[in-house]
Write a structure and sequence with these properties.
The protein is mainly α. The chain is 77% helix and 0% strand. It contains 21 helices and no strands. Helix 3 packs antiparallel against helix 5 and helix 7 runs antiparallel to helix 8. The protein is globular, with a radius of gyration of 29 Å.
Length: 576
């Protein structure tokens, strides 16, 4: 009986003893990790105090204070003048105003989400990752200040974005409502916190990366659809407004800007739900810090260093390559074009395949062209008002150059095959064509796509009514100036590394003028081609083909001939 009784009792006592030992070991390990973390943080703080680096000097504080005050004054003036600008442009609210506010909010949040997911909110230097994280300690406690800093930076940026968003909401309504400012600032602040929380969760665990990226793309498409057709089809705007927290922010801003405090219940409920969503995302972000993998932190540190370097050196192509490399494991389209047998058709096949592998380039070009036509219509409507007086010569030149920006950006987006060749210029030596001929061949596919866009615009104008007006004129600009625009974009692609030696001409402020002119030379050439014609179309929208159309063709031919010669010479120098 004693043996039978002692067996289970003894076994249970041994099990309890083992459990107690295990629990005590885990508690001791946690206490040791907490003590090591506290010691490491205290040592780092003491070394920073002894070194003295990082202490803000008076001139630095004064510079930041002046910059913040100037930005505050500019944003306050923009918000104050927004209703008058909207009235001057003839905007009177309605479904179009609501669509603009909701669609813009979705596009801004999609951009914030893409930035947080690709670059990562929690950033450490490689030295900190190499020397600090391998030590025994609490990783969550070490990374928590970095996440707090990311939230603070995102909040400051959200306040900077919230002021222009407020100005836009007031401008599209044409009425001054002071309650729009706190609602918009609160909405964008909550959206920034939500983006930081989702980005941190993706940084800690790669599993949700795909759905979050897909969410950002869907929101970008939905926001663009609301901007494009939301004024004529209000159902699209309502779908975007009720699509999630990002839509609630736009709906709250649009409702307050349209009705004021008379309908404050809906904006208040939307902001409360938005704040709750941001709080949940931040809570999940803070809880995931302890599981942050070291390789993810190293990858984000390298990406952040490359982005900083590209932004400091004004190397836009380097920034583009970094952002493309952080896009994740995207699946390439399964569309394949059969390789042609004729050697002359190989460059065209390569360009078409590159654009098929990067389908967002043609989509971006189409969106930019649509935005350019909308910009032309707004300028034409503004100049057509009886009370509106035309700008002076400098204003007309600036406005014409502004109208050229969308078509030129579309040409740059379609010139991605040329940019890929210039990233690795030695690759062109393996092709049957010479480097100069290969570079000039990059004109064909982008020009064909611009001509296709012009043909669609012509067909739309013919179906909508008489073949006159801004749409037909815009299509004419694409058909006649398209080759020259693509040629100037290729000049920018083949000119090589940035010419920083141009900055060494002087130590004065005007030393940057040669470098800026070198940077803007292709865009200025494109402006020389199309700016006078687009300004003429905006000023006289009902004009048909006239001498300005003829001069557009002449300027396009001259600039295209210059671009072909320069592209061939630059390609030989680059590949030689």
């Amino acid at each position: 009986m004693a043996v039978t009784t002692d067996g289970p009792v003894g076994g249970r006592d041994a099990s309890d003893a083992d459990t107690g030992t295990t629990t005590g070991t885990e508690a001791e390990a946690a206490a040791a990790a907490a003590a090591a973390t506290g010691t490491a943080l205290a040592t780092a703080a003491r070394l920073r105090r002894e070194r003295g680096a990082g202490r803000a000097r008076f001139d630095d504080l004064w510079t930041w204070a002046c910059a913040a005050l100037s930005a505050l004054v500019v944003l306050a003036g923009l918000v104050e003048a927004a209703p008058g600008i909207g009235q001057g442009l003839g905007w009177s609210g309605g479904p179009a105003a609501r669509a603009v506010v909701v669609g813009t909010t979705l596009l801004l949040f999609a951009g914030e989400l893409a930035l947080c997911v690709r670059l990562g909110p929690v950033l450490l230097s490689p030295a900190e990752i190499t020397w600090l994280l391998p030590l025994p300690g609490d990783r969550g406690r070490l990374l928590r200040p970095r996440l707090v800093r990311a939230v603070a930076v995102a909040g400051a940026a959200a306040l900077g974005l919230g002021a222009p968003a407020t100005a836009l909401a007031l401008a599209v309504q044409g009425v001054w409502r002071p309650e729009v400012l706190p609602v918009t600032l609160g909405a964008h602040l909550a959206l920034a916190c939500l983006a930081v929380g989702l980005g941190t969760v993706v940084e800690a665990r790669p599993a949700p990366a795909g759905p979050v990226r897909l969410l950002g793309r869907c929101l970008a498409v939905l926001g663009a659809a609301a901007l494009a057709v939301g004024g004529r089809v209000p159902a699209v705007t309502e779908v975007a407004a009720w699509s999630g927290p990002w839509g609630w922010a736009g709906a709250a801003t649009a409702t307050v800007s349209a009705h004021g405090s008379a309908s404050a219940l809906v904006p208040a409920a939307a902001l409360l739900c938005l704040a709750a969503s941001a709080a949940v995302a931040l809570r999940a972000a803070f809880r995931s810090l302890s599981r942050m993998p070291t390789d993810a932190l190293l990858a984000r540190a390298r990406t952040g260093r490359q982005v900083t370097q590209g932004a400091t050196l004004l190397d836009l192509r380097a920034l583009t390559l970094v952002l493309q490399s952080t896009g994740g494991g995207r699946r390439r389209p399964a569309v394949r074009l059969p390789m042609p047998r004729a050697p002359w058709a190989v460059p065209l096949w390569r360009d078409a395949m590159v654009l098929l592998r990067h389908p967002w380039r043609p989509v971006l070009a189409a969106a930019v062209l649509a935005a350019g036509f909308a910009q032309l219509r707004v300028v034409a409507d503004r100049l057509a008002e009886p009370a509106g007086s035309g700008p002076g010569p400098l204003g007309a030149a600036a406005l014409g150059l502004l109208l050229v920006v969308p078509p030129y950006l579309a040409a740059v987006a379609l010139a991605e095959p040329a940019y890929q060749d210039t990233d690795r210029p030695r690759r062109a030596l393996l092709l049957p064509q010479s480097p100069g001929g290969q570079a000039v061949a990059h004109l064909a596919v982008p020009v064909g796509l611009l001509w296709a866009a012009g043909a669609v615009a012509y067909a739309t104008a013919a179906l909508a009514g008489p073949a006159t007006g801004p749409l037909t004129a815009y299509a004419t600009a694409l058909l006649l100036a398209g080759p020259a625009l693509v040629g100037t974009a290729l000049v920018g692609a083949y000119r090589g590394a940035p010419r920083y030696d141009l900055l060494a001409l002087s130590l004065d402020w005007y030393a940057a003028v040669p470098f800026v002119l070198w940077r803007l030379a292709p865009a200025l050439a494109a402006g020389f081609v199309a700016a006078p014609y687009l300004w003429h179309v905006a000023y006289v929208p009902a004009a048909g083909p006239d001498e300005d159309t003829l001069w557009l063709a002449v300027r396009s031919a001259v600039v295209l001939a210059w671009a072909v010669r320069r592209i061939a010479r630059q390609a030989r120098d680059l590949c030689g």
